[in-house]
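Posted in: Protein Modeling Q&A

I'm a second-year student putting together a small comparison for a lab meeting, and my supervisor asked me to include a predicted structure for Helix-turn-helix domain-containing protein. I've never done this before, so apologies if this is the wrong subforum. The sequence is pasted below exactly as I got it from our records. If anyone can share the structure token output, I'd also love a short note on what stands out.
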Amino acid sequence: MFSQCLNAKIESAEKLAGNTTAEINCDGREAGNQKKEIHAVDYRDTIQESLDYIEDNLDTEITAEELSSRAGFSLFYFYRLFQAQVGMPVMQYILRRRLVHAIYDISCGAKMVDAALRYGFDTHAGFFRAFRREYDCSPSNYLKRHKPKRPYRINLRQEGHVMLTQKKIKEILSHWGMEQEKISSFYYESSGFKSDRCWYVGENYLLKTGENLPALKRHLEVSEAVRQAGLEAAVYVPAKNGEKYIMDEDTYFCLTRMPEGEFLLARDLYAEQGNSRARYVGEILGQLHLIMKDMEEQEEYQEDALLASIKGWALPGARRAMELPDEFCSEFEKGLEALYPMLPVQLIHHNPTPSDFLIRQGKPAGFIEFENTEKAIRLFDPCYVSTGILSESFEDGNEEKLRQWGLLYQNILRGYDSVNPLSEKEKEALPYIVFSIQMICVAYFSESEKYAELAEINQKMLRQLIAHRDMLTLE
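Accepted answer (user: helix_wrangler)
Welcome! Here is the predicted structure, written out as tokens:
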């Protein structure tokens, strides 16, 4: 998530029925042409007004007729326009938003029956059935496994993609002959966000979608190189036409078979033998960099632009979002500029969150994805996964927890150094790179209501790391 925001800033300067609207999902010349006509004119602002109205009135009755009248379209055309822009029928979207808000209220202490009635469900049983259909489990089981995030307003221009219905996903899976398999939601372990770009298919497969085709190709290429080197990585499943992915208009879909193992969770590193596991994380990351260094001549990748992004966007953005001492900012910028040219640059993962590491028998055995791979300073990756661990486990004011994290950070770096030795200049630059990553997170998360909670956490993290700068040097 963090490097996606960085990539976006570099290029420009982390997770919701009806027979009529179903025609847009179907194959056929007429439906396809109509959909293209809808996309030919940018109606996002019009539909955004409908989304905002829905969000403000979830506790009242909302009809498609009312929304179409407000938008100035016929009911038939509004159905099609909404589906094309959002990715699902309008009434299904309203239902999904009501469920999202209701389960959040319940997690905050509201009685289930009160939340159900507030958001338009006539009975507790009606809410229960609707929730099970949407989430494949009961509300109580959901709350045992996930901590709902405060609902944020959907912004079509910020989201950059549409949501998909189960019907559409099954249509896509037919390209692999797997449309009868069970489809389950995918949740990011680090943040608890429900992804609208990934779905579990059956027990062992993952369907992914996106618009960045070069990123998908990088993921497939690096995954293959990693497997050939003896580490674990996801394996793509060819579609019935033999291709590694299929295209649906401007969107790709790729099906992968997940390797055996579990995602690494930050809490696992605070348990017994956590420091040993942290060292393994550093070691396998060092191995990955050696593999990727051998790949550099095979493909042209975007060159490192981290320094320019930090100076031009992340540092100013962090200063706008929080009070950073002028003296600290001045020293940080001068120190980073002096050291940066001496830091080795190569192909790196560029987004190694803890849940990107595959664990088997208590040790990291491989990686999940590589879609953000590019050339950058190699020090970024070990610092990035370290701050990711802190973000997942952060407790403001808990000095003991911070001290434990400091030991994990040290062991990750020692593990990396034992496989892929760090230079003296890299060791000197460690605090500056950690601060840089935190500034990127603060600047990005502070720009969107969706990430308000993460923005607050990362601001507090940056303050504590500045106050404990001494723990960021490699002892």
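A couple of things worth pointing out for your meeting: Residues 17-156 form a domain with the Arc Repressor Mutant, subunit A fold (CATH 1.10.10.60). The first strand starts at residue 183 and ends at 187.
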